[in-house]
Amino acid sequence: xxxxxxxxxxxxxxxxxxxxxxxxxxxxxxxxxxxxxxxxxxxxxxxxxxxxxxxxxxxxxxxxxxxxxxxxxxxxxxxxxxxxxxxxxxxxxxxxxxxxxxxxxxxxxxxxxxxxxxxxxxxxxxxxxxxxxxxxxxxxxxxxxxxxxxxxxxxxxxxxxxxxxxxxxxxxxxxxxxxxxxxxxxxxxxxxxxxxxxxxxxxxxxxxxxxxxxxxxxxxxxxxxxxxxxxxxxxxxxxxxxxxxxxxxxxxxxxxxxxxxxxxxxxxxxxxxxxxxxxxxxxxxxxxxxxxxxxxxxxxxxxxxxxxxxxxxxxxxxxxxxxxxxxxxxxxxxxxxxxxxxxxxxxxxxxxxxxxxxxxxxxxxxxxxxxxxxxxxxxxxxxxxxxxxxxxxxxxxxxxxxxxxxxxxxxxxxxxxxxxxxxxxxxxxxxxxxxxxxxxxxxxxxxxxxxxxxxxxxxxxxxxxxxxxxxxxxxx
Length: 476
What we know:
Blueprint: H1 9-23, H2 32-43, H3 46-53, H4 62-74, H5 78-100, H6 107-117, H7 119-124, H8 131-150, H9 154-168, H10 177-187, H11 192-200, H12 202-229, H13 231-234, H14 242-254, H15 262-281, E1 285-288, E2 291-294, H16 299-318, H17 334-346, H18 351-374, H19 383-392, E3 398-401, H20 409-414, E4 420-421, E5 432-436, H21 440-443, H22 448-455, E6 459-465, E7 470-475
Parallel strand pairs: 3-4, 3-5
Antiparallel strand pairs: 1-2, 5-7, 6-7
Helix pairs in contact: 1-5, 1-6, 2-4, 5-6, 5-8, 5-17, 6-17, 6-18, 8-9, 9-12, 10-16, 14-15, 15-17, 16-17
């Protein structure tokens, strides 16, 4: 394992750049799902996470267990909690450097600097959720798999099996990486000995999953029930529609930023998608005058293409049963995107053109990352600002009304003093109501809570919006 963590100056410089970028704006407010993660990890026991919280949450429990240990050591503040995903993000950058070295001289450095400056990767390296953990595990699996093709050591197979188990309990969708390995083995026409070792790998995973499977079935049942209970929520979770499909390359390229003018945003997105596709094509196409020829693609490059494409196609297929196709759930497919870009740039024959393409990709990355990091408009929901403002401007006759109990954790994390509740909490004893409009159109489409508030004699006096968290102030 010491060979894995052999450093040199270029990767140290890249990791330093990646660290600096990931520390900018790291103290922004937790958004709702982050606050839920921290609340669960901080306040639930290990047993309660597994038996009380997990059955109703469509994620495996490993991230919450790791986060619980992290909070016990470093605290539950924004910077303390987000330091863990920052480190995981940097480790992933380092693994991409190691994987890139399998592709030829320079590919490791180029792909690592691309991932280190990626706006999307920076964003989720600052988020207290499980997606960056899965991306790290998948990158580690790919690296170990490539090492096994160099030298099939028993110890490496054991480590590979253990990481595969950890990955399966970090999030469910990254388990699709198993299909990548399976299809690669078929395409490479591996012998029986290789297949025996490969099918022995999931033994550890299956033995543990025997105990987790009943909880998974409960999660699946509850998840599928959303379609009948909250159909509007089901429709935005991650349908396999054209919009979500197009968002994958756009978000991979531009990260979480957007432009208010839809036409301009679409034009820029289309132009950049075509440009990046051209760079990717240079990895396997050779242009000779008007003729186009396919280059011979190595087994390592085939693995990268499968890593990128197979999970996307498989996730799209799953949407026919459950909506899971969202770009952030596919974060583990972002590293091969940059690895293949590095391959494409390396394969451009003319040095000047190669340099231009390299600078162009870096410019897009740095520009989009800077816009996200330096412009608060693109930061997360400001539950901290909301809770502080309401706490400062409320008294004992004030109440904050939510449309659903599942939307209260962000407020609870930042304020335990202000009274909060649902429609049943409202009575004539209050003189002031802070009516939360957060996801109201999904959980209260008929606006029943607002109607009840107004029927009780309250009148709206002001509207506020804390970066995607709207609230209306009602007074008698």
